[in-house]
Amino acid sequence: MDRYAVIGNPISHSKSPAIHAAFAAQTGQSLTYEALLGPLDAFAATVAQFRAAGGRGMNVTVPFKLEAFALARRHSPRAQAAGAVNTLVFDADGIFGDNTDGAGLVRDLTHNLDCPLAARRILLLGAGGAARGVLLPLLAARPARLTLANRTVARAEALVADFAQRAGDAPLDACGFADLAGRQFDVVINATAASLADEAPPLPPGLYAPGALAYDMMYGRGDTPFLAAARADGAARLTDGLGMLVEQAAESFLLWRGVRPDTTPVLADLRRQIE
Ligand code: ATR
């Protein structure tokens, strides 16, 4: 049977094995998908071992996405732009690296949440790996404007300058949180690590245009601090990142198996489990 795995550290709480098992059952694909704890000093060796044992591909999660990028011999354009890899494909040509995070986010927004991005004003909060990983797919969705805001302004500016070289005259700008005062957005996406510290990015009030959606890439029980703040600031719609998790998995599954699973029942099951 074809073998796949997710590698990370820690990994025991990963929902990926359950998600991929559900996709495999639904599409009639014969495969196994396991969770591998990668030793912090032996990522490449663990991948090599899995591949030698007949592994066909892997998902890669924290903290190995940059190492996975370095390991891959070939990259998709979206992995190239992200500078990080969350999906590895092992084939006769060696190791191919892709990044399905941004496509997963865009698909969750446009398909599951019925939130079109074309011609909308998007605010992306953060300038670390999570933000970088989704920038190109967000731009490809043709927003009216994509504004990147970060606590450390210089980091947002550096990221935007880098993308300006790749994406030419994309409607992209960078600023600090305080500079957002007086501006309004249709979609606000939290890609900062603030939720991990149980904090919300310090945003000025009045950011949400009528009907606007607030999206936290984190997920868990109840509102994150960012979503609670968005609710208080009048965001019309709030959502966590559970749909992105399932959609990035579906994109990986499609890449490996050539079939796109129906994510709706899988996401509904997962939602029932965490709530
Ligand atoms: P990741 O890969 O999760 O993006 P990272 O590369 O360490 O992790 O980036 C973390 C991001 O969260 C950064 O944008 C960081 O802001 P700085 O660049 O100013 O450090 C942001 N961040 C972390 N904690 C935050 C907080 N409490 N409030 C606002 N932003 C925060």
UniProtKB/TrEMBL annotation:
Keywords: Amino-acid biosynthesis, Aromatic amino acid biosynthesis, NADP, Oxidoreductase. It comes from the Bacteria. Its EC number is 1.1.1.25. The active site is at K65. Residues 241-267 form the SDH C-terminal domain. Signal peptide: none annotated. SUPFAM superfamilies: Aminoacid dehydrogenase-like, N-terminal domain, NAD(P)-binding Rossmann-fold domains. It is an enzyme of class 1 (oxidoreductase). InterPro entries: Aminoacid_DH-like_N_sf, NAD(P)-bd_dom_sf, SDH_C, Shikimate_DH, Shikimate_DH-bd_N, Shikimate_DH_fam, Shikm_DH/Glu-tRNA_Rdtase. Pathway: Metabolic intermediate biosynthesis; chorismate biosynthesis; chorismate from D-erythrose 4-phosphate and phosphoenolpyruvate: step 4/7. It catalyses: shikimate + NADP(+) = 3-dehydroshikimate + NADPH + H(+). Gene3D superfamilies: Leucine Dehydrogenase, chain A, domain 1, NAD(P)-binding Rossmann-like Domain. GO terms for molecular function: shikimate 3-dehydrogenase (NADP+) activity. Shikimate binds at S14, K15, S16, T61, N86, D101, Y219, Q248. Pfam families: SDH_C, Shikimate_DH, Shikimate_dh_N. Residues 6-88 form the Shikimate dehydrogenase substrate binding N-terminal domain. Residues 117-195 form the Quinate/shikimate 5-dehydrogenase/glutamyl-tRNA reductase domain. NADP(+) binds at G126, A127, G128, G129, A130, N150, R151, T152, V153, A154, R155, M217, G241. NCBIfam families: aroE (TIGR00507), PRK00258.1-2 (NF001310). Belongs to the shikimate dehydrogenase family. Involved in the biosynthesis of the chorismate, which leads to the biosynthesis of aromatic amino acids. Catalyzes the reversible NADPH linked reduction of 3-dehydroshikimate (DHSA) to yield shikimate (SA). PANTHER family: BIFUNCTIONAL 3-DEHYDROQUINATE DEHYDRATASE_SHIKIMATE DEHYDROGENASE, CHLOROPLASTIC, SHIKIMATE DEHYDROGENASE. Homodimer. This is Shikimate dehydrogenase (NADP(+)). It comes from Aromatoleum diolicum.
